[in-house]
Amino acid sequence: MADKDGDLAARIIGGVAALAAAYVTRKALTLLWTKAVGKEPPADPESPDISLGEALGWAVLTGVGMEVTRVLAVRTVHKRLAARAPRAPERPQR
Predict the structure, then answer these.
(1) CB atoms within 10 A of CB 17
(2) Per the domain annotation, does 91 fall within a domain?
(3) Residue 92 resides in a domain
(4) Do the Cβ atoms of 58 and 33 come closer than 8 Å?
(5) Helix ranges, 42-93 (H)
(6) Contact 77, 21 (CB under 8 A)
(7) 42, 54 contact by CB (below 8 A)
(8) Phi and psi of 38, rounded to 5°?
(9) Which Pfam families match (predicted)?
(10) Residue 88 located in a structural domain
(11) Range of the structural domain that residue 74 is part of
């Protein structure tokens, strides 16, 4: 991102949007996991009591899901803020 007026505001709003999207995504992934597997996702995937396949599955699902959500949320905020930002007048052609 270029340093521009309003860049800090865009970063803050993008961060808040990413946090909100992450919260919703985490809830959705937990529900999806519970429906698919039939039990709650592992609370501590590093625990030796959890099977390796279950721990890796949950780690991959949450890692990819959360990062995709974060990218989409931040890009959406920046796109909407850019559309509302005043544009510099074009210079006349010579």
Answers:
(1) 20
(2) no
(3) no
(4) yes
(5) 52-84
(6) no
(7) yes
(8) 95, 5
(9) DUF4235
(10) no
(11) 7-81
